[in-house]
Amino acid sequence: MVDAAAFGTYGVWRGAAALDAGFASSVERLGYGALWIGGSPSGDLRIVDEVLDATERIVVATGIVNIWKDDAAEVARSFRRIEQTHPGRFVVGIGSGHREATAERVRPLASLAAYLDVLDAEGVARDQRLLAALGDRTLALAAERSLGAHPYLTVPDHTRHARGVLDDARAGALLAPEQKVVIHADQEEARGIARRYLKRYFGLENYVGALLRHGVDEGDLAGGGSDALIDLVASNPTVAAAVAGLRAHLDAGADHVAVQALGDDPIGGLDALADALALRG
């Protein structure tokens, strides 16, 4: 089992395609408590083996395995293999992806519940899994049937709301939003890096809907995102601005924030943040 406290206050989010043993080792050395593997890693979870083998203490979580892409029984078998080798260090995060990318994505809440039923039957316990969650019903399901929720591309107003939904369903459920940061000498270039990365996400209904429900004006999404929106979801350009962006989620009720550092030197940005957050102390 993984206790929610084992994640620490800050972790690092990195897409599976850009992740390797060296990156994982650096994240642990910098003092972050968790490494989130994004980009729908495959159900064999071999990337999890790789990063756990390269580290000693850090908690690893998928953020997330796509339920339409990988069979629940296969994921459970992979989980058991990993748990045998690295007990208590891995949490399998699952999610239902995006309507625009998955033609078969119908009744996602019921499909998530059915996937969890298989994980139950295969021996993956509630505290060994978590859910990507944006809407209230999915947040409640995450609290009731998993360790908690891992919202992606949200704002502090969503975090505040999510905290209430989770607590109504089960006190103590983990809330671990992702937050992008861009550390750069020039703010306009930092915003450009964020806009290029966010272009596809601003075309996805579930993310856009969550932003609009929690304080973002529709006009802020035009033209690749207003400066105010970009600065909110991808804190930039200084370390101080990045720290403020992370702490805004904690102040709103998050237990843990997964930091996604954008740009050409993510480890450099994470290193500077680690110093500011006193993670190595």
From TrEMBL:
Alphabetical list of InterPro entries matching this protein: Bact_Lucif_Oxidored, Lucif-like_OxRdatse_MSMEG_4141, Luciferase-like_dom, Luciferase-like_sf
All copies of domain Luciferase-like, residue ranges: 23-106
Coiled-coil residues: none
Pfam families assigned: Bac_luciferase
Domain of life the protein comes from: Bacteria
PANTHER family noted in UniProt: CONSERVED PROTEIN, LUCIFERASE-LIKE MONOOXYGENASE
NCBIfam families referenced in this protein's UniProt entry, alphabetically: F420_MSMEG_4141
Name of this chain's protein: LLM class F420-dependent oxidoreductase
Species for this entry: Microbacterium marinilacus
High-level lineage: Bacteria, Bacillati, Actinomycetota, Actinomycetes, Micrococcales
